[in-house]
Amino acid sequence: MTTLNPSITRWQGIGLLATALLGTSVFILPQLTVSMAGAGAMWAWGLLILAMLPITLVFAQLGRRYPSAGGPAYFVAQAFGTRAGAAVGLVFLFAAPVGLPAAMMMTFEFVHALVPLSPAATLLAQLGVLMAMVGLNLRGVQLSGRLQFGLTLVILAVMVGIAVLVFGRADVSLAPLGESWQRGAMLAAAGVAIWSYLGVEAMSHLSAEFRSPERDFVPAMLWATVLVGGIYLCGTALVLALPQGEGLAMVALFDLSLGGGGAWVIGLLGILAGIATMNTYLNAMSRLIWSLSQQGYLPSVLAPLNRHRVPQRALLGLAGVLASSLLVAYLTGLDFDVLLPWVNGLFVVIYLLAMAAGYKLLGGRYRWMALAGASFSALLGYALGWALIYGVGAMVLVLGWLSWLRRHPQPSPMERAGR
Questions:
Q1: Which of 302, 296, 324, 323 lies closest to 314, judged by CA?
Q2: pLDDT digits (tens, 9 = 90+) for 191-220
Q3: Are the beta carbons of 170 and 36 closer than 8 angstroms?
Q4: Domain limits at 144?
Q5: Does 2 map to a domain?
Q6: Contact of 200 with 17, CB cutoff 8 Å
Q7: Residues in contact with 197: Cβ distance below 8 Å, sequence separation at least 6, in sequence order
């Protein structure tokens, strides 16, 4: 059979997107935004939800009308040509040197909750985890999608349970939203919080697998966007209700609500979910490198597959970049809270291009939604400040590379084989 199985319902679609966006971030990002903006973190999350609604709606409409696994790259290609679409795919690769190390560092926050490690020991352990993931991927071994889905559902259940138990206590109350906070700090927190929604565009390629895409796909994406935002708002309110201290706030909240065991429960969930998320992105990015090399946009040396049908050179090259990034972060003292805005700036650029594609491809009120999405994306880019330079710089480098390829076209692997 060559057709997809249309089996996803509206509620299943909501669950798929919500679990894809939560991961371990729900245990970390609320605390990070509170440390940046205090009570203004609640307003930061509100601004982000407001910004993501038109962006999500445009992605949903593009996914419904132009279903493709290429996501934003495919939409931009349809609107502005294949080279423009390739540019988006190439820009996405620039997330690897900063995004994957940031995810590794966030995962090791949960390791530190269980086992205190020195910076050198942490680096060695991170490199060990990376080698294990590469070894699994080289043999074509993938973690079960159902396992990851179930793991995120457990994380969600733990989060909701903590909220019910903590806010049910008589000695806990929500910090007043009118508490003094600065607009600049609130915008900066919103810029960091974008990390929580990275991946909303990935749902766009699933529209063809909905049982009734015309009826259910767009509502599923919008409801999931609101649900995820509500969960992060809840987490932020929980952190604000807790006296600030050292370590992970969610561990302290778990201990407060259940009397202990937070380090082990939150720690193990965070480690497992972090490894699962990193493994997924390592796999996806290696395939993207392979695909772009097949099309002639990257060197053909990255194209061969091993006997397990895995793009081995692409995967090893990607692993080398990640290992180097972890080493640089160790030597310079960079932490994930510094790297997150760089990744977010990269995706702001991608979202702006996708909104431009939406404006050209969609009609009627959806053009206004695309303009609103582009405006909010620009506002979030402003909130990121200098961190946006990473995304803009990546686009400049990619455009320069594509310009060079236009003058010096490279034969694709298929063309080489035919010679």
A1: 302
A2: 889 888 887 776 665 666 677 767 777 888
A3: no
A4: 10-417
A5: no
A6: yes
A7: 21, 48, 52, 225, 228
